[in-house]
Amino acid sequence: MANGNLKLAIQKKGRLTDNTIELLKRCNIEIDSYDERLLVSARNFKLDLLFLRDDDIPEYVQDGVADIGIVGENVVREKKSDVNIKKRLGFSRCKLRIGIPETDELEDLGKLNGKTIATSYPNILNDFLTKNNIKSKIIEISGSVEIAPSLGIADYICDLVSTGNTLKLNKLKKSFTVFDSEAVLISSFKLELEKEKIDVLSNLIKRIDSALNAKNSKYLMMNIPKDSLETIVKIIPSLKSPTILPLADENLLAVHAVIPADKFWQIIDDLKAVGATGILLIPIENIIL
Ligand code: PRT
Ligand code: ZN
User: Fold this and answer.
1) Is the domain of 174 the same as that of 273?
2) Residue 10 resides in a domain
3) Distance 256 CA to ligand 2 centre (A)
4) Ligand 1, closest atom to CA 55?
5) Separation of 272 CA from ligand 1 center, angstroms?
6) What is the DSSP letter of 5?
7) How many domains does the chain have?
């Protein structure tokens, strides 16, 4: 489809798919239902979506078949792909960790010397071990890595962990973190050749920034006693320039401000203690910086 559209490779079906589609929606990019189709054009943006297995995304982008892609950083690193990480997207976070039998103890990394470790991430694990001057035997397994110790194939495993339930179910526990991962936006170096696509990409990145900023922020509205304004500004460090409005009651002020969403629950008691009332926390759709 040589229509000049920017081609974005995303996971067809898996842990990244819903979050990726949701991010595009928050960027106000409309996509028709794609069902079994491999390629779909966005309705209101110069973007074609290419639906792939996540493992294939870095290579498609590296080779320029797709211009950009959204994939776990773990896959990019494992494939040692020659692509640019343009943006960390903050979703599908997980850790590549060493997992050991519940009954074992692993006090320091040195104890990995001479052990056999099963993993689907031999390259990332090997880089980690080399960096830490550890010599273990790596056994590559493509799936169900967590059963390797009980089958006697390996002493330990190295696998992606998010809640830790899979480890527990297999009588394993988490140990050292080998790699922290999240979804990333990657781009092909070949993109530098095409001016029109670069413009579309920079527009897309602006929208992603705005969507991510909005997700991490909330709009706080509250009424405060006039004389506690200074204290309130100290409670919310990001409150550099709040909007302050007079109220019918001369002793009160209305204060509006954008705050980091994760700070709210830490500061709510402090706000109440200095007399804040009518506290409202409102989601923000977009923040244009
Ligand atoms: O079919 P396709 O090849 O496209 O998909 P896939 O099955 O290879 O990948 P998928 O959809 O399982 O994962 C896609 C990406 O999601 C991964 O590459 C990671 O970047 C990210 N991600 C986030 C995870 C997890 N969390 C995760 N928990 N990928 C896999 N897991 C697995 C892990 O391998 C283990 O089996 O979930 C299990 C552990 O989960 P907890 O919650 O029990 O700890
Ligand atoms: Zn995969």
Assistant:
1) no
2) yes
3) 45
4) 3
5) 42
6) P
7) 3
